[in-house]
Amino acid sequence: MSGFGDDEEEYRGTVTVVLPGPADGEDGAAVEVDAHLAGNFSPLTGDYRWRGRLSASPEVTSAFREGARTVVVRTPDGFEGTGDLGEPNLWGGHPVNGAGSPPFAVPRIDVDELDA
User: Fold this and answer.
1) What is the value of pTM for the model shown?
2) Rounded CA separation 71/42 (Å)
3) CA 104 – CA 116 distance, rounded (Å)
4) Within 10 A of 79 (CB to CB), how many other CB atoms are there?
5) Residue 41: which residues within 8 A CB-CB, separation 6 or more?
6) How far apart are CA 25 and CA 90, in angstroms?
7) DSSP sequence for the chain
8) Exposure letters 24-61 (e unless 16+ CB within 10 A, then b)
9) 85-101 confidence digits (pLDDT tens)
10) CA separation for the pair 19, 32 (Å, rounded)
11) Are 70 and 25 contacting, i.e. CB atoms less than 8 angstroms apart?
């Protein structure tokens, strides 16, 4: 994905997208798709911002058309993040972005050590 910079952590591979369930707070279908995700710490907002794209999936597109906008993205390593699902692109995939814990490993930083 163009625009990903050298200061960003990246993940490429299979993810599980957990779609919203029929009732608030319930998980719906879990769909495996390929993804390219990246993120970085935002010093202006003080949180971690991540974004990427999901490969085409009829299940994800159907859920989007039915109103799903928030999904959980999980990687096989056990990391997960909640993201906002965007309109399908020309190839049928969806952009996704989130703030907070990303669905991939990132280096741990001890803030106290930065102040020293």
Assistant:
1) 0.82
2) 22
3) 28
4) 16
5) 47, 48, 49, 109
6) 31
7) -TT--TTSEEEEEEEEEEEE-SSTT-EEEEEEEEEEEEEEEETTTTEEEEEEEE---HHHHHHHHTT--EEEEE-TTS-EEEEEE----TTS-EEEEEESS-SS------HHHHH-
8) eeeebeebebebbbbbbeeeeeeebbbbbbbbebeebb
9) 999 999 999 999 999 99
10) 11
11) no
Pair of tokens at residue 88: 């399908």
* pLDDT tens-place string over residues 45-75: 888 999 999 999 999 999 999 999 999 999 9
Residue pair 37/52 in contact (Cβ under 8 Å)? The answer is: yes
